[in-house]
Amino acid sequence: MHNTDTFAGPSFSLGNRLARLIWNACHVLLFRYSPVCMHGWRAFLLRCFGAKIGRRAHVYPRVRIWAPWNLEVGAEAGIGNDVTLYAQDRIIIGRRAVISQGAHLCTGTHDHEQWGYPLVTRPIVIGDHAWVAAEAFIHPGIRLGEGCVVGARSVVTKDMPAWMVCAGHPCVPLKPRKKFDDIGIDTDI
């Protein structure tokens, strides 16, 4: 439960804040400086903190994750260095999806029209085969359809359709994208 007045106290429980403190220590000591090729090690660490990580998913060492227990990454997905997963709510990344360097997925904001600016969180869902290109920003509550491509430095404020190339500030659908088959893809999480 979130505090309705962020000036009067923290938005998250003591348990949540302690869990994030432990995660941050683990991130600095064991995750961030692990060799690039040690994807299995980082997946293990994330699973220890409640993340659901699919087989052969590649989470690179300089990814910043606010709360791994709110993260689900599908099989063979890739999350590049310097990505920020501000997982105050669920972030679900589909199989074979790619989140490129410097992208920012933000599930939390504050209601500026309410006294105390209460925290508002909404989950983000990235479809299978989707690609969020470098330095794109995904707002809370967004769904990217299967196979959707979001161009570099785009700002996504609305859901984007499946199998479309989308870009801009604000991001808009631009043109259809070729659809891929799932033949031979291991979908186990």
Write up what this structure looks like.
- By secondary structure, this protein is an alpha/beta fold.
- It has one domain (14-176): UDP N-Acetylglucosamine Acyltransferase, domain 1 (3 Solenoid), CATH 2.160.10.
- It is built from 2 helices and 19 strands.
- The chain has helices at 14-31, 39-48; strands at residues 52-53, 58-59, 64-65, 71-73, 78-79, 84-86, 91-93, 98-99, 104-106, 108-110, 119-121, 124-126, 131-132, 137-138, 143-144, 149-150, 155-156, 164-168, 171-176.
- Strands 2-5-8-13-16-18-19 form a 7-stranded mixed β-sheet. The chain has a 5-stranded parallel β-sheet with strand order 1-4-7-12-15, covered by helices on one side. A 5-stranded parallel β-sheet has the order 3-6-9-14-17, with no helix packed on it.
- The model has no long low-confidence stretch (mean pLDDT 93).
Write the layout of secondary structure elements.
Elements: H1 14-31, H2 39-48, E1 52-53, E2 58-59, E3 64-65, E4 71-73, E5 78-79, E6 84-86, E7 91-93, E8 98-99, E9 104-106, E10 108-110, E11 119-121, E12 124-126, E13 131-132, E14 137-138, E15 143-144, E16 149-150, E17 155-156, E18 164-168, E19 171-176
Tally the beta strands: 19
Number of helices: 2
Total domain modules: 1
CATH architecture: 3 Solenoid
The overall average pLDDT, rounded, is 93
N-end to C-end Cα span: 28 Å
CATH topology: UDP N-Acetylglucosamine Acyltransferase, domain 1
**Helicity level:** 10-25%
Strand order of the largest sheet: 2-5-8-13-16-18-19
Task: Quickly describe the structure.
By secondary structure, the protein is of the alpha/beta class. Helix content is 15%, strand content 28%. It has one domain: Hexapeptide repeat proteins (UDP N-Acetylglucosamine Acyltransferase, domain 1, 3 Solenoid).
